[in-house]
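User: quick one, sequence for these tokens?
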């Protein structure tokens, strides 16, 4: 893959004023304390992102209590929107939040692919390929808040960054937080993202008025897209090749200028979207994936500590006790590895810079060879509902 460090520019425009889930750090879990001032917990989840909160909600529905540690002072509601297909909605239904979210977001009917000069290369209708398909773009902020509200107010402990962890002789994990607090956990679940301290400890780390359609535009080493999220909001992105991440730019007006320069000769609807976007809603993020090779790469669990989501298998967005832990890894490998390979290959094809290859892609591959079925095959993932319990 020729991409050394691809970069994503993304936004959610016209952000809503819905109240955010800002819980005070003083609202803490009341846990049993041992004589040496170490709090004991059965299950500790590190990271209050989507994976962490979804895991906590799932455990709660099974009647299992957990403590979620989040290093930030409140829920991290920034970041890109998420396009969820039917497999994602099955999971949300299984943990009891699917219908809470459906009512807030448009169902996307299909996808349009265009060249940089505005010529339509291909269009698809999702239900023509699969009548059961369900596609909606969801705001990360609302998804997080919807998950968090399902938990007791004291289930998430904010301002609780993980400083270090170690396994005790009895098999339990000792977690030391940045503020000096110490916790002893029977099970640790790492949901702490791409730079996961839990993954690092485990040795995994070394060292992102329109029709209800997903619209893509492909150029040379550059691509863009946009999709309506709700009746009043549109999400767009620009993805481009870069030899290095370059200096960190946080000034949103500079990011907007950079975005407009990248696509200055592209379809006017994309340029208009950028112009209409409030500066403060634009962000720039490097895209990262991690190749996990079966047998060679470390497993997602060690003892009673396990990784979930980006902490274990981050992918580019191109497609959207101990025995139990080992079973989890065995079950997930056959799904995670092919998806990582597919996401990487699709990204390589879409970001190619060679003019001959781009011409073949735009005039042969996309219009005549690409079919929606194989692209969405990974969404045919069954998820059984979790058991509901009363609290």
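Assistant:
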């Amino acid at each position: 893959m020729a991409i050394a460090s691809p970069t994503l520019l993304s936004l959610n425009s016209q952000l809503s004023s819905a109240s955010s889930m800002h819980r005070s750090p003083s609202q803490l879990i009341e846990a049993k304390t041992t004589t040496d001032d170490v709090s004991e917990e059965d299950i500790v989840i590190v990271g209050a992102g989507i994976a962490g909160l979804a895991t906590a909600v799932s455990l709660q529905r099974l009647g299992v209590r957990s403590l979620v540690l989040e290093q930030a002072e409140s829920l991290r509601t920034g970041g890109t929107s998420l396009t969820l297909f039917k497999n994602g909605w099955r999971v949300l239904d299984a943990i009891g939040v699917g219908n809470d979210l459906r009512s807030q977001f448009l169902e996307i009917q299909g996808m349009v692919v265009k060249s940089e000069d505005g010529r339509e290369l291909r269009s698809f209708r999702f239900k023509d390929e699969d009548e059961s398909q369900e596609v909606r773009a969801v705001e990360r902020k609302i998804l997080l808040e919807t998950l968090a509200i399902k938990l007791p107010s004291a289930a998430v402990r904010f301002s609780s960054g993980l400083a270090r962890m170690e396994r005790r002789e009895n098999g339990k994990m000792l977690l030391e937080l940045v503020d000096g607090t110490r916790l002893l956990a029977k099970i640790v679940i790492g949901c702490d993202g791409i730079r996961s301290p839990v993954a690092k400890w485990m040795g995994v780390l070394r060292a992102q008025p329109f029709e209800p359609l997903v619209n893509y535009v492909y150029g040379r080493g550059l691509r863009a897209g946009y999709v309506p999220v709700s009746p009043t909001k549109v999400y767009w992105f620009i993805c481009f090749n870069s030899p290095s991440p370059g200096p960190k730019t946080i000034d949103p007006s500079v990011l907007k200028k950079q975005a407009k320069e990248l696509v200055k000769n592209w379809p006017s609807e994309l340029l208009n979207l950028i112009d209409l976007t409030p500066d403060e809603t634009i962000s720039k993020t490097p895209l990262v994936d991690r190749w996990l090779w079966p047998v060679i790469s470390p497993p997602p669990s060690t003892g009673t500590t396990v990784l979930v989501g980006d902490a274990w298998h981050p992918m580019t967005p191109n497609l959207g006790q101990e025995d139990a832990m080992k079973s989890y890894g065995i079950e997930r490998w056959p799904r995670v590895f092919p998806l990582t390979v597919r996401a990487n290959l699709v990204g390589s094809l879409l970001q190619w810079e060679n003019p001959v290859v781009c011409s073949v892609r735009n005039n042969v591959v996309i219009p005549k060879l690409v079919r929606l079925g194989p692209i969405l095959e990974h969404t045919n993932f069954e998820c059984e509902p979790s058991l509901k319990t009363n609290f």
